[in-house]
Amino acid sequence: MAIVSVGIAILILVLLVTWAKLNPFLAFLITSIIAAIMLDVPLDTIPRTLEQGIGGLLGSLAVIICLGAMFGKLISTSGAAQRISSSLMNICGDKYITWALMLTGFIVGIPLFYNVGFVLLVPLVFSVVYQTKLPAVYLGIPLLAALSVTHGFLPPHPSPTALVPQFGADLGLTLVYGLIVAIPTMILAGPIFAKSLKNIDSKPLKTFTPKTMDEDALPSTFNSFVTSLLPVLLIAGTTVLPYMAGEESSAFVTFIGNPMVVMLIALAIATFSLGLSRGISITTIMDDFADAIKDIAVILLVIAGAGALKQVFVTSGVSTEIGDALKSIDLNPLILGWLIATIIRICLGSATVAGLTAAGIVAPLVLTSNVNPNLMVLAIGAGSLMCSHVNDSGFWMYKGYFNLTVKDTFKSWSLMETIVGVVGLISVLILDQFV
């Protein structure tokens, strides 16, 4: 009966988001209270349970996500993203233009959250369209596939970063495995798939004609690339640091390897290299940072709401029942996590909400089985990207920017996202044989 109540709670969440059009944070809170009542959590403890869930999940993530948002904002406003794009175009040339756009989406997408990366980079795609006269969809899909991959698989993006502590995974290893999974996934869903889209007619709206910065106002190529990749380099570096340092330096290694410290170091270096050293005032930089926090406030609230619902499951004891029930299903746990995330993604639309909701359901299985928690983060990330359709804001952003019909949006965007989800899962399952 308890598991049935969980199913009803998920259905209520879906209806509140899709039918009632409630903000996901409010939907999570209402669903959490209803679920707590159905699961016989004492009424006087429900508020404390929700607070515990919100604080427990946000406590380890809020700083990382906020620092990541500031870092991404600086990459955008400094012109580093534009420099990376133009440099890769020059290196790859017209023959490999789709590969250059894919690499642009991947490198710039690491520090930028998805919606920000979309709004920033799609106009750059259109500038290439105007220069080369090549089809817009053919050029855009490789970049957007790379953006989707970074969004679903790589810290410090919200969903993978939030799943790491829930599963007891390691942020550094998740990033390393995520990079391994990301490369074949974005190649197949990007440049290779894009070859089949040359006949889709797209006339991007003139509203989205890019306004580019002058070349002499941009940071150097070296500065742009190295600074943009700092979070990846630092997180990967601190993953191998414990194996290189002796026991006497364990306290320092623990400190320097903390994700919050890593992001703070990356932001401090970027503030100097992309900002202060180039004559940008500290006031301007801080104003941009304030705008960045506003941009991700909704994401933080969604994570908070998901934490509340998860805590209801834990406090009521239904998490244990869910774990036992999932263990009895004769299916690879990684496939099971992917499938649950896929179903929720199809129902709700939001990849972040799908990933966090699926994590709350699958977490007991991860903690009680021998499944690799780092790979479970990636499997759920792949599932959360599946089958984007009309209830996903990304679907309509893509349709609007590229000025496509709904049919062509399904043929290009929805199929690309599905390829990312399927190839991502296959890559995770292959990697599971070796780690």
UniProtKB/TrEMBL annotation:
Membrane topology: Multi-pass membrane protein
Transport in keyword set: yes
Cellular localisation: Cell membrane
Major localisation: membrane
Keyword Cell membrane included in the entry's annotation: yes
Stated family: Belongs to the GntP permease family.
Domain of life: Bacteria
Membrane spanning stretches: 26-43, 55-76, 96-129, 136-154, 174-194, 222-245, 251-276, 296-314, 334-363, 375-398, 410-431
UniProt xrefs under Pfam families: GntP_permease (PF02447)
Protein name: Gluconate:H+ symporter
Key words, A-Z: Cell membrane, Membrane, Transmembrane, Transmembrane helix, Transport
